[in-house]
Structures are given as C-alpha cells and as structure tokens.
Design goal:
The protein has 5 helices and 7 strands. It has a single domain, classed as Maf protein.
Amino acid sequence: MARRLERDQLVIASHNAGKLTEIAELVAPFGVDVVSAGSLGLPEPEETGATFQANAELKALAAAEGAGLPALADDSGLVVESLSCAPGIHSARWAGPERDFGRAMARVQEALGDSEDRSAYFVCALALAWPDGHRECFEGRVDGTLVWPPRGQRGFGYDPIFLPEGEPLTFGEMEPARKHAMSHRAQAFAKLVAACLVGP
C-alpha cells in the first residue's frame, strides 16, 4: 500500500518555471502548500538516470533530504519513435543551457526531415519522496503527432508542436484547464492522488 502524504507542505523539486506552475495548479485543490527547490536554495542534481522514473526519483530524493520535507519531482519528455525515441530523457538538454525550446523544436523538425512518421508521445514520471528515503512513483503518457510550424503560445517546452490524438489544438494552443484534463502530467498526477493524497 502506498504511503499517504500527511504533511501540508511539499517541495516541488524543479527549477523549471513551467513545470512549477503546472504542478502547483494540480496540487492546489488538496490544500498542500508548495515551495520550490530553487526558492530553498537547493541545487539541481545531475540527472544520471537511464529512465524518466530514475531521474524523477533522483530529484525527489535530493530535494526531500535537502529540505527535510516530502518532495515531488517530475521527469518528463517528448519521445519520437522515428528518431530512435529521442529526445526522450534528454528533452531539456536539446534546448541547450539557455533552455531555448524554440531551438529544441526546430532541432526535432530538422531531425525528422521528410519523414512521414510524425507520431510522438509525452511521458511524465512523478516521484514523491520523503526525507527517510521512501518514495512512490507514478507514470502517465499521452500520444499524438508533431506539427510544423509551432502553434500557440501557451504551455511550455515542446507543447506548440504536439497535437494530442483526436484533438484539433496543440498543447500550446489549449487553455490550461483543457490540457490539465488530458496531459501526461495530469495522468501521472491522478495516480498519485489516488494513492497518496487526501481528497480536496
């Protein structure tokens, strides 16, 4: 049985402003006060894991130990099967040290070239860790196709080129509430809620 989150304060183990906003919005209905790892002066650990889950666990454990509080970490990315599953766990690195996702999206488009297979999916692994080293992990996935040029200014990362299956709008064009209802992060979060959070 999963461990329940009994504290009303949670560290979000991310320095990514877009992720912080999305996770804070997802957690808000549960009366949990969130604080970012960056605001606590916690460094970003090097992501040395070979999977999304391994990297999420690594970040959550580092933040939980550093803050002495439960911590939630997300590791997510875009997987393009025709690019040998790149950028995958290296999705943020494709944006370079400046985190320029315009550059990252152009890099994906360039790598795809004239390929007719533009299928892709987003994966999100969420890890909830406690200072004693215990952790719970949950994963979500949403399938879609890649469009070019990018569409929309909402969301973050690769959202403007990702068109979810059966939807007319990219994640970059969607209202946040609509994206939250179907995204990979929302799916993983729903599993976390069912296992670890007390209802709103």
